[in-house]
Amino acid sequence: MTEMNLVQAIRSGLRGALQQDENVLVMGEDVGRLGGVFRVTQGLQKEFGADRVLDTPLSETGILGTAIGMALHGLRPVSEIQFADFIYPGFDQLVNEAAKYRHRTAGEFHVPMVVRTPYGGGIRGGQYHSQSPEALFIHTPGLKVVCPSNPYDAKGLLLEAIRDEDPVLFFEPKRVYRAVKMDVPDEPYTVPLGEAKIVRPGEQVTCIAWGAMLYEAFTAAEEVAKQGVDVEVIDLRTLWPLDIGALVASVEKTGRVVIVHEAPRTCGFGSELVALITERAFLHLEAPPVRVTGWDTPFPLTHEHEYLPLAHRIAPALLETARY
Amino acid sequence: MHVIRDDGSLDPNFDPGLSIDQVVALYKAMVRTRIVDDRLERIQRQGRIAFHVGSLGEEAAIIGAAAALRDRDWIVPCYREVGALLWRGYPLQRYIDHMYGNGGDPLHGRQMPDHTVSREHRYLAVSAPIGTQIPHAVGIAMASKARGLDECAGVFFGDGATSSNDFHAAMNFAGVYRAPVLFLCRNNGYAISLPTEQQTATRTMAEKGAAYGVPAARVDGNDVLAVWRAVRDGLQRATSGGGPTFIELMTYRVGGHSTSDDPRVYRSQEETDSWRKADPLLRLRKHIEQRDMWNDELDGDWRAVCNAEVKECVRRAEEKPPPALGDLFTDVYAEQPWHLREQQAQCVDGSRAIDEENKS
Prior knowledge:
By secondary structure, chain A is of the alpha/beta class. Helices cover 36% and strands 20% of the residues of chain A. Chain A is built from twelve helices and 14 strands. By secondary structure, chain B is of the alpha/beta class. In chain B, the strands form two sheets. Chain B has a five-stranded parallel β-sheet, with helices on both faces. A two-stranded antiparallel ribbon of chain B has the order 4-5.
């Protein structure tokens, strides 16, 4: 056990994967000599060589397109897209190629690849270093989408994603890259995909969040507890395939649900969660499901704390929902 | 580069030295591909299949390249290269079943016609978006190199694909990593309606290689022996650690882009007719006839064999039932998640029920 932040835990996971499986390789812009702009891959090229930790030319299409080819031919590439905001030049490769390869070849070929990318706001990154595009990938059949909130889950989910036979988008909450620390085993271990986790049990309102906003949801829950409202906070961890059972069980108990995400509200993943919960737990609902999200605007610089669904916006939503 | 001269003799400076049996086999494969194409085009016109994208006039570029690669080398197709797949022994019945999207289609009717794939034949999947397969070939070649395998990847694409961002990314990665890959650009004159001279301001496609440090060759794509020679040279470079090669195969799309196209809108009949004279089949036939290995009788017999074969495959394909509806819901992921299990039940059984297991 070593105390690690998210950056260190992800690096520890990558190191474990590179040690365990000679077919794993890490690739992306500046991931080798520099160790990545967030230093997640620091030291890995020195340890494993430039053939296994590849500094690539500056092209998301090239990174993701060649990673698909490698995955089709026995390797397990873990690509880094420097910021989730820059993923779009490679969007076609992800949604039309990686996602569909198994289905369109009736299982003759598949693409076991992981795409790591830091997402989300709160680092004064403005429009192009703050986006949360997870819903675009959840909407695409064939992709799995993971978003850890803490170092232990990040390492375990990453190792599981690398072993997974399907393409996995791995969104890393850069706002809390270094802010969250906890004891993490030094050796490799896995956390299963598709399992949510109750991080704060409660009886009156279910609050669903993931990634960096999990902490805001938790803070808001503690805040409203002082006013007598008991909130159950659920960390989704894997966004898709979704742990629908955990969500429905919680809402059947509380009858009330608040969903928090950074991405814009319209057609955000919260919309789908509301639909699924309403379809399955309608007769248990005591209040309209509520979404506390980013606004339907491009992500701002100056007012990013008014854009993000921080605790000061979540707490009133929890109170209103509890008292509805 | 030309090998087969107008009079049917071979230029000794470039003759790749294939045995006459190999050359006849190339000719027979080209004829078979054309007969399959012709039959598919006609049954599409009759409304019996949805679509076909043929290779009329480009058989030498496709089959010559496939023949120069070794069985262990990968073929990463665009969508017009089924001749290469058939050359590798893919069963014609399976291909025709795929064209019908029937229960015999290995892809369960999921894909449009002519979107074939075969791991057994080291032939990657066809994808309709242009150019997306090019970086896959580079990735495959990088994997071959990383795993120490003596392999090369040959990727087909048209002149239009040289405008796609995937092309530039792939060429650049191949140059940087010296990947054992062959870029096989079938320059057939048109990207649907757009002529090559409006696709690019460069005089040739081959000169684009220089920008990425990729050696390039430009050959007569209607001369199957010139194609064979150029691809084999590239293969030797790739497998001896010399990295990628770009090969521009100069040819002409005599047919429409696909059965959905009408080339009369954008080009003259005279233009197309002039290319019919440069037919790669006529050219090769002249050579093998000159060597007394072919004649009208042999030609007629072979065409009859091919026609009977494709006719029989079509007959059988039309008797097969459609694929099972439930097949739509498999292979989305390695294991079927709850939501697809639920949607499969809704689609197949008409049930609106929510999977009990996942209700709570």
